[in-house]
Amino acid sequence: MDFALTLKKTLTLLALVDPLLAVPLFISATTNLDLAGKKKFSGHLGLTVGFALLVGGLFGLHFLSLMGVSLAAMQVGGGAIVFVVALAMVIAKEESIKYTPAESAKAAASPSIVPLAIPLLAGPAALSYVMATSKINHMGDLLHIIAPPVLVGTATWLCFRLASRGGDWLSETTLSVIERLSGFLLAAIAVEMMAAGIKALFLGSAGN
Q1: 10 Å Cβ neighbour count for 60?
Q2: CA dist., res. 109 & res. 181, Å (int)
Q3: N or C: which end of the chain has fewer CB within 10 A?
Q4: Burial of 135 by CB count in 10 Å (0-12 exposed, 13-18 middle, 19+ buried)?
């Protein structure tokens, strides 16, 4: 069982989901809720994000296989999406990349799983990443397929649970540093994903 891979996937998924970015939307959406209601909604968000990522990891490759899409193609495509998100994080444009104005307005209007949990948190970048990195070769692989979504869902719940008490628990400077460091990490992982996919595609072509 590769604990290093599990840690890597957990940190990558956490950066892609990025619940900190959605804290202002959460606060706006839950303005009219009492503390108990906010805590309950934060639990629903964490559970939904974790479940969506887990389903993507366990069944995503099977779905792609039915659609005739290879793992290598998914690695290249998913890596490209992750790289765009990473670049946006580095230049502080992630919100404009991940959220459309209409989605932001809808998410902030009222407490709703859609679109805040899906697709704003568990969106295309996070789902494509879990699909592209969830090939099962032996039973030990289940650790890095199941654990990261569960941990990220839990982290999402904790993030919004803290936010339910007020939005001033994390300074803008700290958030900015976290976003940029996460962006650098994601950029490197995205290049690694695309390189593995391109290599597999070329080797596959050469073998035919």
Answers
A1: 22
A2: 31
A3: C
A4: exposed
Residue type, 41: F
Number of H helices, E strands in the chain: 10, 0
Burial of 57 (0-12, 13-18, 19+ CB in 10 A): buried
pTM above 0.85, yes or no: yes
Domain-wise residue ranges, the chain: 3-207
Burial of 4 (0-12, 13-18, 19+ CB in 10 A): exposed
Read off the DSSP letter of residue 116.
I
Cα-only R_g, the chain: 17
Per-residue model confidence as pLDDT tens digits over 135-193:
888 888 999 999 999 999 999 999 999 998 765 556 777 778 888 889 998 999 999 99
- As a whole number of angstroms, the distance between CA 207 and CA 3 comes to 33
The DSSP H or E segment spanning 123 is: none
Rounded Cα gap, residues 69 and 62, in angstroms: 10
